[in-house]
Amino acid sequence: METTAAPDEPGDRVPAGDEPGHRVPADDQGRRVPAGDGPGHRLPAGDGPGQQVPAGGETAQTLDRGLRLLHLVADASAGLTVTEAAHRLGIGRAAVYRLVGALTGHGMLRRGGDGRLRLGVGVLHLARRAQPLLAEGALPALRRLAEQTGATAHLTVVEGGEGVALAVVEPSWTSFHVAYRPGARHPLERGAAGRAVLAGRAGHAGPVSTAGELQAGAYGVAAPVLGVPGLEASVGVISLAPLPVDTVGPQVTAAARTIATALS
Known about the structure:
The protein is of the alpha+beta class and 264 residues long.
């Protein structure tokens, strides 16, 4: 698979060493080594004037930049150009090209026909591997919540700008309850689960209640899961009858805190 990024705009030059035909220098035993590892190589400059980054620090800095680039692209619904990414990261475009080359090689990024960077399928693969672990960590608190409230409890996570039901637990003692499938999607602007996520973004940890926004005759109460790095989620319950927020709200909020602790 070719990992060299295409030019960002007409006349743009790919960084030296990234173009076809470039030869990597050999060491004294004939082995090929990355440019800059040979004798006499000077350490790269740091972010400040005249600073030099130790070899180990250079690796950590590159990793940090790559992860920051992934977060930037994930937050840009329309994708990013290399120029935009370089500006937001505060580094040169040549450095961004090298990051893009490595990340596209691992399937974490891709460049569309418009030249903009977007997340690749490799990120989805990692997310699918992580989802069962998230669900497993949340299930004990969801079971308690479902039994306490007599309503269907769920953990909803943000994926692709939508809320996705990751784990669902139904109460065992009720005659009727809402059937809610794991994998169900809905806009964040509709339903208690999505609205709770948006409230969490604004720093509000309290419960959110809605009625009939996702399904006529259904009532929901949810609270955001806060304090878990890299995770946007909410915990909530759905019922066919109105839910008393003064009672159910604290129960949902407590479950959200318990799950946040379990996943941290």
